[in-house]
Design a protein that fits this description.
Elements lengths: L1 H33 L1 E3 L4 E11 L2 E8 L4 H4 L4 H18 L4 E7 L1
Parallel strand pairs: 3-4
Antiparallel strand pairs: 1-2, 2-3
Helix pairs in contact: 1-3
Length: about 100
């Protein structure tokens, strides 16, 4: 009986790790490609939060708190263009799952 319970715990742990692996993989990929973005005059740092719920992956993109000074003079159009690129990258890494990107400037 104890072995069966232990086996179930290991199996459930493996499934929960598989979900977090995809989340971590997408978040790491986005941070590596888009961690810092530029409008040719200044840089801002982006913060990503990736969560998987069922067959959907939610990506939250926002300007990092440390970049609040640069944000005031950063082009919002450039930010929006990067968000489109981020969405394409997330979809290519999502292994066929739906991707919803929410951005906060």
């Amino acid at each position: 009986m104890k072995k069966m319970i232990l086996c179930l715990i290991v199996i459930l742990g493996a499934f929960s790790f598989a979900d977090t692996y995809l989340e971590d993989h997408i978040e790491d990929t986005l941070e590596a490609k888009y961690g810092y973005i530029s409008d040719n005059s200044r840089y801002i740092e982006l913060d990503f939060d990736v969560h998987e719920q069922g067959n959907t992956i939610y990506v939250k993109v926002k300007v990092d708190d440390d970049s609040y000074r640069e944000k005031s003079s950063f082009s919002k159009n450039v930010f929006n263009n990067y968000v489109k690129q981020i969405e394409k990258t997330a979809k290519s890494e999502a292994k066929g799952k739906n991707v919803i990107v929410n951005s906060y400037f």
